[in-house]
Design goal:
This protein is an alpha+beta fold. It is 24% helix and 25% strand. The protein has a single domain (5-275), classed as 4-Layer Sandwich (Double-stranded beta-helix), CATH 3.60.130. It binds succinic acid.
């Protein structure tokens, strides 16, 4: 019988303890899948997951989405390298966002494994988008259920945009701006019925959502700003402090995350595998 234990984390998510991800029993995998569906965010500590183990774990949850923009591991293209070199000033993911909302079928989630950590800083913050939805009034929930929003990644991954700077070009950290320019902006429901849990979640984010469908950007901005503000009250933010062997596995349809950039002059490297998702349905 497994000793595995699931402990809710302060703010959002749950930490799963007493499990070895390189040697998962079938019943442990079932319990991890259930925790992932329930919490939308799970953490592991003290793991020794190598690249094969990382890929094998991801495949138990779905097909791997090979990243179009991030540098890939030299031997394992399925693994994206999320790195900030000591001389670089910007980090990857240093604002509130959920990955891949600029895709028609947004990725389900990502498994992020710590590889090289700064001595201090470099935490990742998370919030639950179920909780963000629940905090809204009944009237606003009803209005939002009828809306869709336009998302885009062109202003982030396109040429001359956020990551297209000299230090990125030199390190090849983010590339393929041509593909960034060619991204076609999808719309998604603002309130989704979560594909795994069936619960309602708020599905917009500051990095990739442009405006409500049928509204101008100017008309959309005040409501979007209100929703963003009420999503991240301090009491609802989960701060994950990385240690060697730490892993975070989030669901993009149930959470936002934010990588702190408070370790200037130090190096941080993470390995990320992203798993394919599906078309999102309104609640
Ligand atoms: C990301 O946004 O995927 C990066 C998160 C992190 O490096 O903590």
């Amino acid at each position: 019988m497994t000793k595995m234990e699931i402990r809710p984390h302060q703010g959002a998510g749950a930490e799963i303890i007493d499990v070895d991800l390189m040697n998962l029993a079938a019943e442990e995998l079932d319990a991890i899948k259930q925790a992932y569906a329930d919490y939308g965010l799970i953490f592991f500590r003290d793991q020794s997951l190598d690249e094969h183990g990382h890929i094998n774990l991801a495949k138990k949850f779905g097909s791997i989405n090979v990243n179009r923009f991030f540098a890939a591991h030299s031997d394992y293209p399925e693994i994206a390298i999320v790195v900030k070199e000591a001389h670089q000033e910007t980090n990857i993911g240093g604002d509130w966002h959920t990955d891949h909302s600029y895709d028609l079928e947004p990725a389900m989630g990502s498994i992020l494994v710590a590889k090289d950590l700064p001595q201090t800083g470099g935490d990742t913050l998370f919030v639950s988008m179920y909780d963000a939805f629940e905090r809204l009034s009944d009237g606003l929930k009803k209005t939002l259920r009828g809306l869709r929003a336009v998302h885009s990644g062109r202003h982030v991954f396109g040429s001359g945009q956020g990551y297209d700077d000299d230090t990125d070009a030199a390190s090849n950290r983010i590339s393929n701006t041509d593909a960034g320019d060619q991204l076609v902006d999808p719309t998604h429901p603002v309130i989704i019925s979560h594909p795994l849990s069936g619960k309602e979640a708020l599905y917009i984010n500051p990095a990739f959502t442009l405006q409500f469908e049928g509204w101008s950007a100017e008309e959309s901005a005040p409501l979007l700003q209100y929703l963003y503000k009420q999503t991240v009250p301090e009491s609802s933010v989960c701060r994950f402090k990385w240690q060697p062997g730490s892993i975070a596995f989030w669901d993009n349809r149930a959470t936002w995350h934010f990588a702190e950039n408070d370790y200037q002059g130090l190096r941080r490297e993470m390995h990320r595998i992203t798993i394919d998702g599906c078309l999102l349905k309104a609640s």
